[in-house]
Amino acid sequence: MEIIQHLIDGFGYALLPVNLLLIFAGVTIGIFIGALPGLGSINGVAIVLPLTFLVPPESAIMLLAAIYYGAMYGGAISSILLGIPGASTAVATTFDGRPMAVQGRAGLALLAAAFASFVGGTISIVLFTAFAQPLADIALKFHSQETFALVVLAFTTFVGLGSDDLMKTIIMICMGLVLSTVGFDLISGQPRLVFFDLPGFTGGVSFLILAMGIYGVGELLWTLDQSKASPVLTTARLRWRDIVSGLKELMGTWRTMSMGSILGFFVGMLPAAGATPAALMAYGVAKTSSRNSENFGKGDVRGVVAPETANNAASTGSMMPMLTLGIPGSPTTAILLGGMVMWGLTPGPMLFVEQPAFVWGLISSLYVANVAAVLVNIGLIPMFVWSLKMPFTVLCTVVLFLCIIGGFAANGRMHDVWLIGIFGIIGYLLRKVDYPLAPLVLAIVLGPVMERSFRQSMIASQGDVLTFFERPISAVFMFIAIALFLMPVVRAIRDSRKSPQAAE
Amino acid sequence: MQRADSLIAAAIVAFSAYCMWHAWSLPIGWVDKKGPGGGAFPFWLSAIMLVAALVVLVKSLMAARKFDRFFDSATFGSVAQVTIATMAAIVLMQYAGAYVAMPLFVIWYVRVFGRHSWLLTLSLTLGAILVMWLFFEVTLQVFLPKGPLEPLFVPLYAIFF
Fold this sequence. Notes:
The complex is a heterodimer.
Chain A: H1 2-14, H2 17-35, H3 41-48, H4 57-81, H5 91-102, H6 106-139, H7 144-161, H8 166-180, E1 183-184, E2 191-192, H9 207-226, H10 240-251, H11 254-269, H12 275-288, H13 302-325, H14 331-342, H15 349-354, H16 356-379, H17 381-387, H18 392-411, H19 414-432, H20 438-460, H21 467-470, H22 472-503
Helix pairs in contact in A: 1-16, 2-4, 2-16, 3-4, 3-9, 3-14, 4-5, 4-6, 4-13, 4-14, 4-16, 5-6, 5-13, 6-10, 6-11, 6-13, 6-16, 7-20, 7-22, 8-20, 9-18, 9-19, 11-12, 11-13, 12-13, 14-20, 18-19
Chain B: H1 2-23, E1 30-31, E2 35-36, H2 40-62, H3 73-96, H4 98-113, H5 118-139, H6 150-160
Antiparallel strand pairs in B: 1-2
C-alpha cells in the first residue's frame, strides 16, 4: 500500500504542467529520432543531454526517459514503412511489419506496433513499480565489496552473453575503465593519465563527450558507410474505423503480448542484453510457440506485436538496475546514469531514501510517458511519415551541428569538441572491425564506482582479495561472474570436441 | 579487412603501453595503510588491454590474408569527405569562431555534399545561426567562440543581455 501512496505523490509531481509538457516533448522527439533510420534512443539521449541544462535536473531526467521511451515506439515506423529498422531495437519488427506494409496493411501494422509498445511499456512499468523498492532495500545493505562484485558481474555479462569477439570485448571494457581514470586520483589527489600534458585532460574525459563522439559523429559516419540505394517509402493512412477494427484484432494477441512484455523486462535488466536481443528473442518465442507459425515472416500481426512489446519492456527493464543499484542495464541508461551523477542525483538505493519524491516522480513519469507516446504516435502518424521523406543529408547536418555546438555547450571547452571529433572517428573505425561499443560506454560510466569500491574494499581487508568471497551476497555475484567469464571457454572446448566428430 | 584489424590492434597495443607508462608515475602497487596506489587501477587494466590487443593482433596476422577491402570505394569517398569537413569545422570554430565555421559547414554539407537547392541551404544556414545565438547564447548562456568577429557582437550583447 505504501507503494500506491508513493505513486500518487509521484503522479502529482509528474503531472505538473512543466513536466507534462517535457514528457510530451520528449516522446515526440524520441519517436522522431527512433523513426529516422540510423538514429536510436542512445543517439537521441546523447545528443539531447547537453541541451537539457535549461530545465531543473529532475525534469531533465524525465525528458530523457521520455525520449528513450519514444524512440522505442518510433523505431517501428521506419521498420514498417521503409523496411529498414529505424533503430537496431526494431530489427525484428521488419520481419513481419514490412510484409504487412507491402500487402497494404501498413496502417494496421503501425497501430499494432504502437499498441504493443503501450502494452509492453505498461506491463513492464508495473513490474518495475513492484520490484524497485524491494531491490533498493536489499541494495541498501551493500558494502563496497558487493558494489565491486556487482560491477564485475555487469561486465562479465558482456563476456558470457555477448556475441562479440571475447578479446575485443575485454579491450573495450578496459579502455572505458582506463579512460574513466583520466584526470585526478580521487583518493590521493594526484593528477594521472593527463595525456600529452594537455590541460584539457586534467578535468577527465567526460562520458558525455565519449557518447556524443561515438553515437553522434561516429554513428553518422557508420550510417554513411552502410547506406546503399534509397529505400521505397510505403505510406499509411489510419482512420477511426481502422483503429476500432484493428484494436479488436490486436486483442486476440494478448498471449503474445504478455509473453513479450515479461521476457523483455527480464532480458532488459541484463547490461549485455537489452532491447535488441529481447525483441529478437520474443519474435523467436512467438514463432516457435505458435500453432500456425508458417504465417510468420509473411505479414503476421503477432510478428509485429512480439518484438514491439519486448523492446519497450526491455527499456523499462534496463532502467530498474540503473535506478535501484546504480548499474545501467543498457548503454542508453548508462548515459542517463552519467547525466544523473553529473546533476548530483546519483542513482542507487540511497536515492530511494534521500530523494523519494524524485524517484517516484520519475517512475510515475514513465506511466505518463507511455500514455503520451501512444497518443502522439497514433495521432501524428502523417507527420512521422512525412519526416521519413526528409533527405538524409539534412539530418546529418542537424546532428553534426548539435554534436559540435552541443558538445561545446556542455562545459564551454574547445577541448571537448576536439575529443568528440576524434572519438567519432575512432568509434567508427573500431565498429568497422567489430569492436563492441556498448561495453566501452558502460565502462566509462561505471569506472569511478568500480575503482572506488575496489580500493575501499582493499583498504578494509588489508589487501586480501578473498574479501569479495567472504561476504555472502558479494560471493554469489562473484561466482556468477566467474561462471559467465568461463562460458566462452566452455563453449570453445565443446565446439572443438564436436567439430572432429562432425568432420568424420 | 585483415590489415585494418591488425593496424587497429597494433594501435591499441601502443595506446595501452602509453597508458601504462603514464600510470607508472603514480604508485601502482600497495601503499602502506592507503591500499592500492593511484596508478594501480589504470596500470593493471591497461596491462590487460595490452595483452588482449596482442592476442587480437597475433590472431589477425596469422589469419589467411583475404583481399576483401576495408573500404567500399563507393562509400569511402563520402565517409572521408564528411570526416574532413567535420574536423575542418572544428578547426575553424577554434580559430575563426562558431559563426564562421558552422554556416560554412552547413553550406558545404547541404549544397556541395547533399546537392540540395540554395533555398534549403540558406534557410538551414540561417536556422543554424539563429539556434546558436538565440538558443545557445541567449537561453543557455553559453558563450561560443567568435574569433576575430567578437567586436561585431558587442552591440548585440548590449541588446540581449
